Amino acid sequence: MAAACASLTIAAMNTSTSATRALPRIAVLATGGTIAGAAPDATNTSGYQAGVVGVGQLLAAVPSLAAVANVQAEQVASVDSKDMALALWSTLAQRINTLLASDEVDGVVVTHGTDTLEETAYLLHLSVKSDKPVVLTAAMRPSSALSADGPLNLLNAVIVAGNAKARGQGVLVAFNNRIHSARDVVKTSTYAVDAFQSPEIGALGWVQDGRVEFQRSVVRPHTGATPFVIDSNSAAWPLVEVVTSYAGVSRVAVDALVSASVKGIVVAGTGNGSIHSTVQTALVEAAAKGVAIVRSSRVGSGHVMRNGAAADDALGFVTAGALNPYKARVLLMLALAAGLTTPVALQQIFDTF
After folding, report:
1. Is residue 235 part of a domain?
2. Residues 62-90, buried b or exposed e (16+ Cβ, 10 A)?
3. Is 351 annotated as a binding residue?
């Protein structure tokens, strides 16, 4: 559940007023997660409670923040990110847009749980309306753990958010000294501190010891160049769900979703988004009833190619390209909410963003 936004300010500890003003002004929005988790002892890295450490305590654990930015912080929520809700997405997107519209804020950092970080990051990548940096970060070990990774990740995220090179790159993820694009990044490990990777084309760059280096730039349109708007009227998100194709799968899930008036279905297909014939038959029937169908893949990298008139065009399916099923769901929800419902219009959206 989203909490009321408590706020605090940590100014740079510097006697020179001009030096303080020269530092970037970064808003840190805390949402909970492992980075704000705590366990009974320092050797416990799995049996902890997520989201119990407040943003003030997170910042206090990184005193060197005062040397790199003037930080204002807000506790937007205190959730385990496995429980991320659409309403909280709306709250977060609106708050970021409000902050970035102010001349008093140069960038935003969001502390988040790792479980759904890639989905939240991509949602913001598509809906933030500013070229100022937005950087998500997290941790694989709770704040109470030996060698907790959260403090350094937070410091690096603030450094990236305050760096001029990050402007115009869309929403970024700073994790384990690497900088990833929200569109590319995925969680690839259940335990490792380098759990976030960009499997298809690699990280954008790196951050270490205060230095930020970008090796490439984001190419596809994002943030202010998208048609997607999340505002106070976005409470009713289109119902979009994910189904998976596998050996011996039945059509029960697809039929149940259609009966529940789902607006879209993303298929986590095998290989190049291939779909078991039993499920494909059910999906063709769903498409005929106006349900948007998007083919993605359960494989960890690569892209799903459009099969053209021989298959996708005839069936009324859309292909997700390099988006995994969960990011494809985010884009499909936003597209449907924007009134884009035909396979042709949706394919253009997936080919563009």
Report:
1. no
2. beebbebbbbbbbbbbbbbbeebeeebbb
3. no
